[in-house]
## 1
Amino acid sequence: MAKVVFVVTAANGWTLKDGTVHPTGYWAEELAEPHRLFRAAGWDVTVATPGAVPPTLDELSLGIAGGMPSKRKVMRQYLASIQPQLDSPIALDVVDEDDYDVVFYPGGHGPMEDLAVDETSGALLTRRLDSGRPLALLCHAPAAILAAKKSDGTNAFNGRRMTGLSNIEERLNPFAWKAKWFLEDAVKTAGVEYRKATLPLRPFVVVDGNLYSGQNPQSADALTERILADFEQ
């Protein structure tokens, strides 16, 4: 049986430049849809977080920002069905990425708070990228690459092609004007060859060797389906 580990943020807030903390966590669609698709394909799915802390759902992701009511209802029901697993994640520091066919990072603003500075996650990402085995990051999850450093101090993802939430998409959030930094700017500074769709909020996936990335929540299905299709070849 193929195996995937979801590395999920443990943060429940995002600290803004005025010192306030915006409640956040993982984005519903970015965890629920890939989890559902992997499981439907017969994969074993493991959830890991820093410190084995149960991840927090960003309630905004099941509000208007999460899409049509019927879609949000389905996602809420699916998340409820896997809640026992979400309540008991394994600790990120015990994950051996070699045990998994795919390492998958879903997003939400949470990774901007914790995974962006998590050395354990950064080391895992660096090893996985170097291994040539599939690694995927979705929406805000590429913030985690900021903690991925080579021995010379340069970013492990320098020169790689990726996407992630664009500046224009971030600015659609009413609290974005208080953000300390935007994802697109940060990954470019790290040396990533950033790509994005012509129009915001449209599915967009970039594949660079073993590195898979999706731009936004709308890319969750397309990213997962691309990974599954490539794995079957």
## 2
Amino acid sequence: MRALRILLVIAVVLGGIFVIVDRVAVHFAEGEAADRVRASEGLASTPDVDIQGFPFLTQVLGGSFDEVRVGISDYEAGGGEGGKTIRIADLRADLRGVEFSGDFGSAVADSATGTATIAYDELLRNAKAEPTKVAPGITAEVVALSDGGNGKIKVALETTVLGTKLPEPVSVLSSVTVVDGNTVRVRADALPVLGGVQIAESRVRRITDFEQKIDGLPGGISLEKVQAASDGVDVTVTGKDVRLAG
């Protein structure tokens, strides 16, 4: 019995040591992987990398991780022609089946799902937020974007008639969708009356409707769907054979 107790104590101690070593190793690997992703994507700050699963060391020996979570703040994505950029406030990706090299110099995930949040002021910066003539003596411009509820965006339009700015903006509820896997499209559900005048649809939509291209996302992930939220639009992103580094 005494020998059995001794063996049990030894097993518990060794098990504890293994857990400690395993956790130290995963912490080191997460730091190395974060540095590699930062260098590969040219990020301004180091991303959060969280390697899931236990034990970590057996996954290392197998050359792949079941799941890796990556978080990037203030990511500058491509915003279309003319070198425009658009800032993604928060980008989170859950990567599955991550194959990697021994020094973490390269890493490729079988699949990825995640979310990206774009603030309304950032989306507005790339919209047609300048006065545009919609009828003789009448100009309009988008001055604010906000949450309209039920996944809609509320677009506020400021109207000027014969040089006089109307006291209150006109609000329009708009649907937001993803086009071609890399573009957010905002389109008014119903057309507003501006300055008391019913204006041709094509002219009004020149103001109310716009598209924002978002490309150059990490690892080649693409947009899947989008909806309005309290502080901006929430975009679902997906990808296959997503390359994190190398």
## 3
Amino acid sequence: MTADDKAVAAGASNDRQQPSIVALGGGHGLYATLSAARRLSSDVTAVVTVADDGGSSGRLRSELGVIPPGDLRMALAALSGHEPARSGAGGTTHPDVQTWTKTVQHRFGGTGALAGHSVGNLILAGLTEVLGDTVAALDEMGRLLRIEGRVLPMSPIALAIEADVVGLEADPRVSRCIRGQVAVATTPGKVRRVRLLPSNPPACAEAVEAIDRADLVLLGPGSWFTSVIPHVLVPDLLAALTETTARKALILNLAPEPGETAGFSAERHLHVLSQHAPELTVDDVVVDSGSVPEGGEREHLHRAARQLGAEVSYADVAESGTAIHHAGKLAAALDRIVSLAAARDRQATPGRETTSWQ
């Protein structure tokens, strides 16, 4: 166990109650957030993007008409019971689930019809057809993997992403419309704005309910235009994020992504989020201390954060030598911002009881 894990575990042993945490995102970014959040609580709900149109997910979406299952599968694996829900704090280990988790994540090789398909994607697609409902299928696989939290799609229907991209024409001022998550994520141009198709899609009702009852809501990291911003383009999800009394933390990426955010500063990430959802506010912006140098860049980031109503929290949250978030370090960083907020509340209202989430 790392020092960060021990710090989280030490505080967790004194909990009076666990926080209800909701994490929104997709792909590897959401996997990292969930791996951190489960160290703070076993009451973790993942709300996952449903616009993937590539690889195994894209094939199943096209052939079967199902919600793309890949990002949902990864979220299930991140919360599966093969690891303690709360590191060092009495979490229950389920060795028998380890084989199932590995199998769910396994991808077929070869050159036949199954080549490239993830086993978990096929299981989710099959469960959806048998049960007639994506959420029911996710809950059933969650029971198989002994998940204490829940994995939900952000919308009950498959969505598409469309982007306005500049830099693809001779005239740099001319934008081109690019459609599809994979196309947007890999475009050599600069993404200016994204939309969902159909526009104003419905939100998953259970996801809205989870945000309403949450104590802590996490957004990011991940592909900014295709995994993070889509959540605020679903009207009922944005309304829930705007109205919730939960503390909201935005977790920034460790580095710009080729294609989507090449050349973006940390400040620029906040600006484009605000452009897509001007009414959205957050409480904290979590930034890796090594990814934003001290000086002018941090000053610009602080100004952008204030426009969101947020404070910036710097911490070492990266796997050494990589652009990947370290689950234990990120958990410790989130624990610190919540603990500091609770301490400020106690000082502002003497005598007020505040539940510790450490």
## 4
Amino acid sequence: MDMDVPEAFEPFSLEVGGATLAGFEIGEGLPVVFLHAGVCDKRMWLSQMQSVADAGWHAIAYDRRGYGETQSADVAFHHGRDLEALLEAFGIHAAVLVGCSMGGGLAIDFALRHPGRVIGLVLIGTSVSGAPWDATEAESMIEAAEEDAFERGDNDMLNRVQAHEWLDGPRAQSGRVSGAARALFLDMNALALNKPALTQEQPMADAWHRVAELAAPSLLLVGDQDFTAIIDRHEQLSEEMPNAFAAVLENVAHIPSIERPILVNAMLLQFLDAIAGGGDDENDEESEG
């Protein structure tokens, strides 16, 4: 099942090194670039993009290679260079980067490579290259079910297991999150699971031992139903990143942007308002409109 994209969202495509990146944008003002999780695509951010556009910001999201509507040949690539090409295409020198899971890992990687090009970071249940991973017994069981479905090539089962794992939470009841949020997750992840494999992705450098260098104003969010290792990582980042505000969201798992969009929107807008210095007159007028 698809999720309708409002007409106000302007689609775009960008040719980059053997790929056509598909995205959409909305609004005007300082740029906020949204980077999706590894089990989603750009549609996970629809509510947040509309919210920040209404508040006077320029919201941009795109599907990385291997996801959504983006098409790519099986060529050597690096997600960070794709992001850099996107910013260049839009004439953006610096932006706020909002990333969930693997999208957060990309935001961190980009911020370490180009600190002067990051106005602020919003990291939700973030990946960090080189970070440790330990699973509880219950979490290991669902990981084993995931591996079994993958090895059998059963993408439908794999999608259902990953919905339990990432949308409901690995320790939660399967089906905890239902309705439109579940339908959207299953649709986004099915597209990714059924795309041709890309075998030449160039890995990101280890970032785990460099997170103290991330000096940009940062908002760190994690759901208390997420993997224990991700919650522990969140706590570590909150201690080591010098300019970070951190919050744990109750009764939420790995994809809060579609599970609790109103909550995420409110926290995101509060953060953007803070890093903009309370908003200038132009932003204030646009917000009132």
